[in-house]
Specification:
Elements: H1 12-33, H2 37-65, H3 71-95, H4 99-121, H5 123-128
Helix pairs in contact: 1-2, 1-4, 2-3, 3-4
């Protein structure tokens, strides 16, 4: 899954952060394909959690500032994603690396990026571009 301009929000910093999330997914999928997944999975889970929290906070403030009508829906979706990510982190902490679960994480991240950004975050662009 790759970044596309159709995901642009009108806020360069958010778009750059989204591009980084796409890169996380792409790099980890490559690591799994190259049989390096076990070596990087724990680091990915930790860094993805930190990055997502930071990004979510910034994005939510932007939506509030621009009075975006989907701001609450965005917050709720962020909470749900954080819960899903926490589940992956907990399973890893208890059972260690599981290739199927790791693939599921990448698929979940890809789906999240396409669905969430393409359905919710893009609404910010209309709010930013208002005269």
């Amino acid at each position: 899954m790759r970044w596309s301009e159709e995901y642009a929000t009108g806020v360069e910093r958010i778009d750059d952060q989204h591009k980084m999330l796409f890169k996380y997914a792409e790099d980890f999928r490559a690591a799994l394909d190259e049989e390096r997944g076990e070596h990087v999975y724990g680091v990915l889970l930790q860094s993805l959690g930190v990055y997502a929290r930071s990004h979510f906070g910034f994005e939510e403030k932007c939506m509030d500032r621009y009075r975006c009508p989907v701001a609450q829906q965005n917050r709720e979706a962020h909470v749900k994603f954080a819960e899903v990510l926490s589940g992956f982190q907990q399973r890893y902490a208890v059972s260690g690396f599981d290739r199927a679960d790791a693939r599921n994480l990448v698929d979940t991240l890809d789906q999240w990026l396409a669905d969430h950004i393409g359905r919710i975050d893009v609404h910010l662009k209309q709010c930013v571009e208002k005269p």
